[in-house]
Design brief:
The chain has helices spanning about 15-30, 40-50, 60-70, 70-100, 115-120, 135-145, 165-175, 195-205, 225-245, 265-270, 280-290, and strands at about 105-110, 130-135, 155-160, 185, 215-220, 275-280, 305-310. The protein is α/β, with parallel strands linked by helices and about 325 residues long. It has a 7-stranded mixed beta sheet, sandwiched between helices. Helix 8 (about 195-205) links the parallel strand 4 (about 185) and strand 5. The radius of gyration is 19 Å and the shape is globular. The protein starts with 15 loop residues before the first helix and ends with a strand. Its EC number is 2.1.1.-. Belongs to the UPF0677 family. Exhibits S-adenosyl-L-methionine-dependent methyltransferase activity. One of its GO terms (molecular function) is methyltransferase activity.
């Protein structure tokens, strides 16, 4: 599906397919004995899409075993991508845990997708978590977890609204208090926004952030949009998509969902606006959780930077 400035999607469609892919990797991680986190809800989402007939990649262990015989390099690349998503998930989990330990009681998850942190993490008793995403994505998420009988571990407010529209107004009308410190997260988001939309999003977020607020982002730096990196990612996704089609499945054409536009370095933007910002290169982030892949196998690992910002009190 070609991207436009005002496109929309549901789970399994366009950008919504990437949320489903991340859920699959979290489900695979959840059954590993050395798992980095516990997320029993990821498989709930996969089961729900299977019932509804929504396309899903389904990198089953049976398929991976067959591919090990015919395309072992693809298996290594897919495993590296899975380790990246698992490490990224744990990094954001740790961010929210640290914010909670610091007494922050208000969190906003931008482009929440099929993230289940409001259900599976520990929060302060009087905390509130706001989740913002496309209406059809949140509708699927809410209906699926409700049917499963899952109750969030915190007061959770679902805001079905496009981040390219006036989401701050909707957020404040839903009870968000801009006078309180907030923990913000943007996971797997920025590549799918035009540069101008990213700038507007950051401006709005900053305007809503009280002193003491924190932010966590897997940010795209200049290295991500270098032609050789986009070619590397494009080749990897084309190959595994072809493999999936040959085996009766499908994958989204992920690189074509990106907005390949020059944009400011996120850490620099934050510092210019008074935030303290720390950067962690993606391979170092994976190494922190003992999941770093050999360089020859990391074709599906985006060359991003994990950025954590804090607004001084």
């Amino acid at each position: 599906m070609a991207r436009t400035a005002d496109d929309t999607w549901g789970v399994g469609e366009s950008v919504g397919a990437t949320a489903l892919g991340a859920a699959e990797w979290r489900a695979r991680e959840n059954v590993r004995p050395d798992r980095l986190f516990t997320d029993p809800y990821a498989q709930v989402f996969l089961d729900a899409v299977a019932v509804r007939g929504i396309p899903n990649s389904e990198f089953s262990e049976e398929l991976m075993a067959r591919l090990q015989e015919t395309d072992p390099h693809v298996v290594r690349g897919v495993r590296a991508q899975q380790d990246y998503v698992a490490s990224r998930t744990r990094w954001f989990d740790d961010f929210f845990s640290a914010a909670t330990a610091a007494g922050i009681r208000q969190a906003v998850i931008l482009a929440a997708g099929l993230d289940a942190r409001a259900w599976r993490l520990q929060w302060l008793a009087d905390a509130v978590v706001y989740e913002i995403d496309q209406p059809k994505v949140l509708e699927f998420k809410d209906e699926t977890l409700r049917a499963h009988g899952a109750e969030p571990a915190v007061r959770r407010v679902s805001l079905p609204i496009d981040l390219r529209t006036d989401w701050p107004k909707a957020l404040c009308e839903a009870g968000f208090d801009p006078a309180l410190p907030t923990a913000w997260s943007m996971e797997g988001l920025l590549a799918y926004l035009p540069a101008s939309a990213q700038e507007l999003l950051l401006d709005r977020l900053h305007a809503l952030s009280a002193p003491g607020s924190r932010i966590a982002v897997d940010a795209l730096n200049a290295a991500f949009f270098r032609p050789e990196n986009l070619t590397r990612l494009g080749s990897f996704f084309t190959e595994i998509r072809d493999v999936m089609i040959r085996n009766g499945g499908d994958l989204p054409d992920t690189p074509n969902l990106f907005f390949d536009e020059k944009r400011r370095e996120l850490a620099d933007w934050l510092r210019e606006h008074g935030w303290r910002a720390d950067e962690l290169e993606v391979h170092d982030m994976m190494a922190r959780y003992r999941r770093r892949a050999p360089i020859e196998d990391d074709a599906g690992v985006p060359h991003c930077v994990m950025v954590e910002g804090r607004l001084p009190r």
